[in-house]
Every structure is written in structure tokens, then in C-alpha cells.
Design goal:
Oligomer: single chain
Helix content: 25-40%
Radius of gyration: 30 Å
Number of helices: 12
Strand content: 5-15%
Order of helices and strands: HHHHEEHHEHHEHHEHHE
Largest sheet: 6 strands, mixed
């Protein structure tokens, strides 16, 4: 008589009473993959420029300090070059799109802060793409875009949208903004936060002259008195260390989109 074939149950451990109970496989939970973009950014949204001592990036940095015509300059000279290239300008941002959702793109207009630099022969248009050249240029120069420039906006919507899309690291560096005229009234009524709550490094706030003109009790009132009243109220909100200046709005030569 031929030997009988072993049944499936005979091959199972004694603890198993059926195929159904022992056929279950316990799988490990899948690992959550971290994308490259997350690895390259810090918690504040800025790029992580730290490199290990024995890495290829460190070897490249040492080679650049010897061979690169720019990066082999002393740090003091490089700092002057970064500031001259990226800083001391008025960056004007605006839009003419009345849709509910619209992007703030790279389209903007840049003017020198100092009138003497408006002569075409003297004025050098900044190149904000300079920090993208390499890791070292980003680490040394990227902050000057926000600490040395003044940002202006054609209206409240532009400012709100632009600020909403800035990472925490950029907002913590911005030092000077020109407040658009239609931003004043919600700001005064408490419908907008104080600037120092959104921009902790704020040192200067520009107020549109039309705020003082239309903020007078009557047309016969002195504009200077209205300006003093506005400056006083802003110092109470922002602190006396913040410089309050006046501007005439954005330029009519702006590029809108």
C-alpha cells in the first residue's frame, strides 16, 4: 500500500488549528521615506548648509578657497562683494490679478535706495540668483537679500500673499518694509498683527504719505500733526526702537502680473 501524502495541517506547528489562523503574515510597518528636499532644509525653511569635515563638499570648499577667483578672497572682501551685489535696494512687488488665488512670482522691480545711485552709470542692478551658485555663496550671502533691502508692495493683498509664502527663516531676517496705504486701516483696527510679531527682526517701517493726508481730522489740519500722531501710535505698537519713515507708494513703472 502506497504511503499517504501528508496533509497541509500535519506540516503546521501544534499551536495552529487551521490553515486560516496560521497563514497570516505579520509585516513590518513601511518606513516613512524622507525626501531629498526635506533633508536639505532646516526647520525654519532655509537650506541646510552644514557639511561634515571629511565629506566631498568640504573637499570642494577647500579647493575653491585656493582655485576660485571669487571664493579665494578673504572673508572681509567677500562680504563687501555680497552686500554690494545683493543689498541696499527697494524691491517692489505687485499684481493686477483680481482672482481669489494668484501666485507671487519672481516678477518684480528693483530700485536703488539712495538717489545718487539712480544714475544708470552708477546703478548696478542686483542679481538675487547669486546665492544659487554654490553652497558657500548661499551660506555667506543669502541673508543679505532680506536684511539689507526694503520690500514695497502695491497693496494689502500683495503684502499678505507674499508674507504668507515666506518661510520662517526668511521672515526672521527681514528688516525693512514699506507698508501699503490700504494696509494701514486693518492694521490700526487690530485686524493685522503687529509687524514685530510676523517679522521679529524688523527695524524700519515705511508708511504711505496718503495715510497721513487722508488721516487728518479735516482738510485744514496740518499734515505734520497727523504724521506725528501716526508715528506715535506705531511706536506704541511696534516699540520705540523701530524707525518709522514716510514713502510715496510704489513706482508707476512697476512690472505687474
Amino acid at each position: 500500500m502506497a504511503p499517504s501524502k501528508a496533509s497541509p495541517l500535519s506540516k503546521l506547528p501544534p499551536s495552529c488549528t487551521s490553515l486560516e489562523t496560521c497563514a497570516r503574515v505579520t509585516k513590518k510597518a513601511p518606513r516613512q521615506r524622507t525626501t531629498a528636499s526635506k533633508c536639505l532644509k532646516r526647520k525654519d525653511g532655509l537650506l541646510n548648509t552644514a557639511v561634515s569635515v571629511r565629506s566631498e563638499a568640504m573637499a570642494m570648499a577647500k579647493r575653491n578657497s585656493i582655485e576660485s577667483p571669487l571664493l579665494r578672497f578673504p572673508a572681509e572682501i567677500r562680504t563687501k562683494i555680497w552686500k554690494y551685489t545683493l543689498g541696499y535696494h527697494r524691491v517692489e512687488i505687485g499684481h493686477r490679478n483680481h482672482k481669489r488665488s494668484w501666485p507671487i512670482g519672481p516678477t518684480l522691480q528693483v530700485y536703488p535706495l539712495h538717489p545718487a545711485s539712480r544714475i544708470p552709470r552708477i546703478f548696478v542692478r542686483p542679481n538675487f540668483a547669486l546665492p544659487l551658485v554654490c553652497r558657500q555663496a548661499y551660506a555667506e550671502a543669502s541673508a543679505y537679500i532680506y536684511t539689507l533691502n526694503t520690500f514695497s508692495f502695491d497693496g494689502r493683498a500683495s503684502f499678505d500673499r507674499w508674507l504668507k509664502h515666506r518661510p520662517l527663516g526668511q521672515k526672521s531676517m527681514i528688516a525693512s518694509v514699506n507698508m501699503p496705504a490700504d494696509y494701514w486701516y486693518p492694521y490700526r483696527r487690530g485686524q493685522r498683527q503687529a509687524f514685530w510679531q510676523k517679522l521679529p527682526n524688523i527695524k524700519r517701517i515705511g508708511v504711505d504719505m496718503t495715510v497721513a493726508i487722508y488721516g487728518r481730522p479735516s482738510l485744514d489740519s496740518d499734515i505734520r500733526t497727523a504724521q506725528e500722531r501716526i508715528v506715535k501710535s506705531m511706536h506704541e505698537k511696534e516699540g520705540s526702537h523701530v524707525l518709522i519713515e514716510w514713502h510715496n507708494g510704489v513706482s508707476g513703472a512697476m512690472i505687474f502680473y
